[in-house]
Protein: Biotin transporter
Amino acid sequence: MRTKEMVLAALFASFIGVLGMIPPIPLGFIPVPITAQTLGIMLAGCFLGKKTAGISLILFIVLVALGLPLLSGGRGGISVLVGPSAGYIFSWPVAAFCIGYATEKVWPTMKTWKVFIINIVFGVLLVSLIGAPVMALITHTSVWAGLAGASAFLPGDCIKAIIAAVIAVQLKAISPIEDKIRNA
Structure:
């Protein structure tokens, strides 16, 4: 891993931490709040590419496990990583990697709508399909109830997917994916 990739991974881990400073929106019927941090996951994937984005989110989770209050609402520590939000949090590196992989595949013909679809599939659906069943398991509810509760995240996550796609397309020229394509 080059120095530039390490710096970008650390930068995006800190950016996701900054997004955690935005207060969460608690929902009364599900123990996982609405946060802005999934925007950072989508941006990391479609700007950094698969490898650097995945490493960035693994770094973020390690920092949270060490007790840094990087999650929305100032949460951090091992207790958060075994609570109802655990499935969502642990899905973030997988989602960022998949978003990065798919974005790298469409890079030469990248359009906003393609990145939006990628963000929806991996940044919204994949995160919910991993997070909701784990939340249901931890809270002793049915998986269907967990998935139904997770549907509350869909409108906001779709907006975040659009924002991430627009930003990624605008920043295409300075993305490390562009460097990788150019040097290959």
Remarks:
- The beta strands are 25-27, 30-34.
- Residues 112-139 form the longest helix (28 residues).
